[in-house]
Amino acid sequence: MIVTIDGVAASGKSSVSSGVAQALGVPYVSSGLLYRAATLLGLEANLDLHDAPQLLTLLGTRPVHLEPLAGGNRVWQAGRELTDELHSTRVDRGVSVVAALPEVRAWVDAQLRALPEPFVAEGRDMGTNVFPHASHKFYLTASARIRAERRARERPEDVPAIEAALQRRDELDTVQSAPAPDALVIDTGPLDLQGVIDTILTRLR
Ligand code: ADP
Ligand code: CDP
């Protein structure tokens, strides 16, 4: 069994996926963390983030491992944990460029498809491209202002700056962010976190 939860930036995908996964007693899988890890490593190596061959060579020589847990995903490169560095502003700024590279998307997709079921998978294209045969599909939305206000509680930046950055990323991510035709679209604006989790669990039951 695979449940997919896709949606725009900061729509609640990882928090909701974690809640749903814990209720179901399965892990959740954060695909965005793999795009973020590729970006962090590219930045650290001073690579041009548009340069797919160089990035793929780097990722091939320094393998990245995603640890999908119900409570929160962790990312490792050999013995080094990358998790805490993946939500920095510089990774936020570069990640959509890296995620637009077909070679990097294939690198992420191969890792996700090798994971043992069952799990909840969250990202942009889990229900469309990576797991089109998932048993249940959801797509989270909310206005850019609401998403920015939520994220401002986690980051040392003001709401207008976060909102502008989210809108820029939404635009750059448009190609891979279409909801699956068979996904239930949930506007999380009027709901609290538990409300979104309960909406999904009700549908699953
Ligand atoms: P994403 O994985 O889509 O980037 P997150 O799960 O990180 O989103 O959520 C962004 C922030 O918004 C987190 O602080 C989270 O707790 C909060 N949040 C998510 N959904 C809701 C909601 N429905 N109501 C209020 N806050 C929410
Ligand atoms: O939720 P938020 O957008 O803040 O972060 P994320 O889910 O970790 O995704 C980070 C970035 O990775 C996105 O902006 C996309 O560029 C990319 N991504 C993607 O292209 N496809 C996915 N399935 C997941 C993430």
Automatic annotation (TrEMBL):
<dbReference type="GO" id="GO:0016301">
    <property type="term" value="F:kinase activity"/>
</dbReference>
<dbReference type="InterPro" id="IPR011994">
    <property type="entry name" value="Cytidylate_kinase_dom"/>
</dbReference>
<keyword id="KW-0067">ATP-binding</keyword>
<dbReference type="InterPro" id="IPR003136">
    <property type="entry name" value="Cytidylate_kin"/>
</dbReference>
<protein>
    <recommendedName>
        <fullName>(d)CMP kinase</fullName>
        <ecNumber>2.7.4.25</ecNumber>
    </recommendedName>
</protein>
<dbReference type="Pfam" id="PF02224">
    <property type="entry name" value="Cytidylate_kin"/>
</dbReference>
<keyword id="KW-0808">Transferase</keyword>
<keyword id="KW-0418">Kinase</keyword>
<keyword id="KW-0547">Nucleotide-binding</keyword>
<dbReference type="InterPro" id="IPR027417">
    <property type="entry name" value="P-loop_NTPase"/>
</dbReference>
<feature type="domain" description="Cytidylate kinase">
    <location>
        <begin position="3"/>
        <end position="203"/>
    </location>
</feature>
<comment type="similarity">
    <text>Belongs to the cytidylate kinase family. Type 1 subfamily.</text>
</comment>
